[in-house]
Known about the structure:
disordered C terminus, elongated
Amino acid sequence: MQRPTIRVAGVCSVGLGLVSGVAIVLTPTTVRSSPVWVVWAALAITLTTTAGAVFAYGLGRWAELTALRPVRARDVVLPLAGLLAAGVLAALVSIVVTAMAHQAKADWSAVRGWALTLLAGLGTMPAIATMYGIRQAAGDTSAVSAKGEQVAALVASRGLLQRLLAAVGSLVALATLALGAAFAVRQSLPTPSPGPQPAPQTVLIFGGAGSMLVALAYGPAATALRNRGRRLCDELFPVHEADEAEAILRIAEDRNKLEQLLGVDRTVVTDLQTGLTILGPLVASAAASLLPP
């Protein structure tokens, strides 16, 4: 995909996200008088606009990946379809909950929540596809190149993966904050809304589920890069072939430097804690809600 095309797609996706957010905010509601409603509205519009920006960003990173390593779109269809199936299942559950709320004559806030979640999920699709593409490229050893080129490709792929994690993580954080603001709107009303009221822990469950879906896309790619980097370190610095103590220390030191450069010494959990800004507060909030006072 050429840069002018990506630029046009980016402008269109951001504009569409902004318009969608405004349309969702302007839907009829009985909670507009709440002082917290403005906060939720701002978060909702920010979420949909960011989803459009992340969609365009993912397209650009896919083009960057294909320029770095040859990856076919059909290679990422199956894992992406599995993730989409999980998203569709979650959407169906949301529809059932919405229908139950409608039968109970509750407010149609569930429709707005489902629409925001759907837009956020669509915004992540190109980025997640690129993550799976990175995994595919890391596991492809058919194109043998010089060791220096392999190191450069692994460093570039890891940097690309980290940027994608930050972009997708921002959507998870915004979606969780928007859901939390929606709960705050309901709690600020002088009279509670009719119908069943979800528990506040729903925000934690939602954020945890979003983080888990991101981990399902990020984990395999990060693991593939780490395994490829470890094999490259074994080829460049075979410590087991050295006999003298001085040579062993020198090779081990050089190997350690390369491992740090390639991120071999980092785990997936560490990367998720760094890239998913919402993960730390989620764990802390979950512990606070589960532990006895």
